[in-house]
């Protein structure tokens, strides 16, 4: 049974910027955190159903010297204050050329989140806004749903296994599949 024919996921991992909150490039200021309108309701729905939630986020601003890890932590704390507690956070502080195994499109953050949650990747879904999110999910063996934004390239949308118009639609695809 492939990952597209499984039951409701036991956890949903979200990309942070452009998926849960509006993308403010290299944001180190918690006051600039602006969740998408549906984010809180979608997360409540998942949590009420006993589905665990997590965040997987590339934060190359740390490697580039544009952000400190303390600033990333402060922004993440603000997100959690606004959207509720996540079961797991995975953050890649590396730059694109660092060759790490965690930076999306590599599957490292998904594998780490799954290990911390005690789940297999096939029990997990990833929701993101760009092709790197989808590629990381595919490489890990997780289900993936793309929620395109204006920065999502048409070829990323065309290649995505599942596409939803918004967060609510993405979660509906995961929870209400026949």
TrEMBL record:
Enzyme class, UniProt record, top EC level: hydrolase
Keywords carried by this UniProt record: Carbohydrate metabolism, Cytoplasm, Hydrolase, Metal-binding
A GO molecular-function descriptor: hydrolase activity
Subcellular location: Cytoplasm
UniProt-listed Gene3D superfamilies: HAD superfamily/HAD-like
EC number: 3.1.3.-
Top-rank taxon, per record: Bacteria
Transmembrane segments: none
Pfam families linked: Hydrolase_like
Family affiliation: Belongs to the gmhB family.
Protein name as it appears in the record: D,D-heptose 1,7-bisphosphate phosphatase
Organism name: Arthrobacter citreus
